[in-house]
Amino acid sequence: MNQENKLPALLLIDIQQAFQDVAYWGGERNNLDAEAKAAQLLGFWRDRNWPVFHAQHCSTNPNSPLHPGHSGNSFHPLVAPLSGETVIRKNVNSAFIGTDLQERLERAGIGKLVIAGLTTDHCVSTTVRMAANLGFETVIVADASATFAKKGFDGKRFTAETIHQTALASLHNEFATVYNTEELLRQLTRSLISSEPS
Question: I need a labelling partner for 94 at 20 to 30 A (CA). Which of 12, 33, 104, 132 fits?
Fold first, then answer.
């Protein structure tokens, strides 16, 4: 993989209007400020003209609110792509499958990815795992990601926060490093300052 581009790319996963329908997705969601945190990350990247990618889930199920025929397929307005920002349209739970994301990253020489979005345990986790296995240095931003309550195979209900935290625990120091937004931006700002010529 070409590692020449030292700038980390921001990959926002499926931050779409459909996920505002909490009842449809399980009746409970954590991190209600995730979109705002993702917007904070996006602003940081845009201010520095760093590479930004938006993944958009386009369900093949016509009844899904994420189907392109429904308004829920649209991006959340806080993180809507600007002209010139890359949109990766997918219909499975990895932004690398059936898309040209890997090719785009490698062509740009990008070796570092910062990933956030919805949902932590599905498309975010799957994309993070694949990114790591493909050789990318990967960060996942905990408070800029969110998920919903789930039922286990035996009917036991797990809260959204439990699902979120266990997904992050499975990824941390194995597939990615987990940060919250403020700490990540502090680290990035510190590295920018330290790299400035004296």
Answer: 33
Torsion of CA 115, 42, 120, 31, to 10 degrees: 150
Residue pLDDT, tens place only, 24-64: 998 999 999 999 999 999 999 999 999 999 999 999 999 99
The model's pLDDT over 156-183, given as tens digits with 9 standing for 90+, comes to: 999 999 999 999 999 999 999 999 999 9
pTM for the whole structure: 0.93
> Which DSSP state fits 139?
E
Strands 157-158 vs 150-151: parallel, antiparallel or unpaired: antiparallel
Query: Across the chain, which distance is largest between two alpha carbons, in Å?
Result: 61
Within a 10 A sphere around the Cβ of 55, how many other Cβ atoms? 26
- Chain mean position to CA 125: 9
pLDDT for the residue numbered 4 = 56
CB 146, CB 30: distance < 8 Å? yes
B/e letters for 29-47, b = 16+ CB within 10 Å, e = fewer, are bbbeebbebbbbbbebbee
3-state secondary structure of 70: coil
Instruction: Give the containing element (helix H, strand E) for 149.
Output: none
Tokens of 150: 């789930």
**Six token digits for residue 49:** 């003209």
Reported as half-sphere exposure (CB side, CA atoms, 13 A), residue 169 has a value of 6
